[in-house]
Amino acid sequence: ILRGAMSIFDPLGFVTPTTIKGRMLVQDIWRTKISWDEVLSMELTIKWQEWLEEVKQLQYFKIPRCYFKELQVEEMELHIFVDASEEAYAAVAYLRHMYVKDSYKTMLIVARAKVAPLKPSTIPRLELQAAVLGCRLAHSIERDINTSFDRRIFWSDSMTVLHWIKSDPRNFKQFVSNRIGEVQELSKTEEWR
After folding, report:
1. Domain of 28?
2. What is the pTM of this model?
3. Which residue of 19, 43, 65, 135 shows the fewest CB atoms closer than 10 Å?
4. What is the top-level taxon of the source organism (predicted)?
5. Contact (CB, 8 A) for 160 and 127
6. Is 39 a domain residue?
7. Are 45 and 129 in a shared domain?
8. Which of 148, 87, 77, 71 is nearest to 109 (CA)?
9. Do 30 and 93 lie in a common domain?
10. Computed over its alpha carbons, how large is the radius of gyration of the chain?
11. Tens-digit pLDDT profile for residues 66-104
């Protein structure tokens, strides 16, 4: 199961919704504390079989090879969306082009997701981890494609995280403070929505 869950090669994260489910299943199995050779419970076996069926469907997944039309790009924006749940947190990046004749093209360029730590954490802390992941993603995109964007916009549905990002990191305990500091270092507060 571990080998299967970790065997999908997806450097750009286009199939992250599938790969994160496999990693979450491995974590669920780990929580049961069964040994390597024990038989899985029926519930976990069913989850594993459902995940394998989802993986089979990936053979039909197609992605465009070209990010740019031949038209002249007037404005280029990077949109990063971040979110979290009790099970995982993620960031996804979209490139948005505005062309000369007011036409637009938006495309997924990369996604990242991480399984939430085994030690329970609050949703706001996980949302903050997603914000850090989003900032790191934006930084690596700009470095890797050697492009500056006309505008970067970071999107979060967490009012708590948006408030934290606009606050002085020294007002918080170490975990939150360190992550706020990193977000503020890699992004501008006015880029957050």
Report:
1. 2-60
2. 0.92
3. 65
4. Eukaryota
5. yes
6. yes
7. no
8. 77
9. no
10. 19
11. 766 666 788 999 999 999 999 999 999 999 988 887 788
Q: Which residue has the tokens 């802390």?
A: 125
The pair of three-digit structure tokens given for residue 33, joined into one six-digit string: 């504390």
Give the integer Cα–Cα distance in Å for 106 and 92.
13
| Amino acid of residue 151 | R
Q: pLDDT tens digits, residue range 154-173?
A: 999 999 999 999 999 999 99
- Mind spelling out the 3-state secondary structure of the chain? CHHHHHCCCCCCCCCHHHHHHHHHHHHHHHHHCCCCCCCCCHHHHHHHHHHHHHHHHHHHCCCCCCCCCCCCEEEEEEEEEEEECCCEEEEEEEEEEEECCCCEEEEEEEEEEEECCCCCCCHHHHHHHHHHHHHHHHHHHHHHHCCCCCEEEEEECCHHHHHHHCCCHHHCCHHHHHHHHHHHHHCCHHHEC
Long-range contacts of 4-12, Cβ-Cβ distance < 8 Å, separation of 24 or more: 4/52, 4/55, 5/51, 8/55, 8/58, 12/109, 12/110, 12/111
State the total domains in the chain.
Answer: 2
Structure tokens at 163: 């408030």
118 and 172 assigned to the same domain: yes
Residue 2's nearest CA partner among 24, 18, 32, 33 is 24
Query: What's the CATH code of the domain at 172?
Result: 3.30.420.10
In a domain, 65, yes or no: no
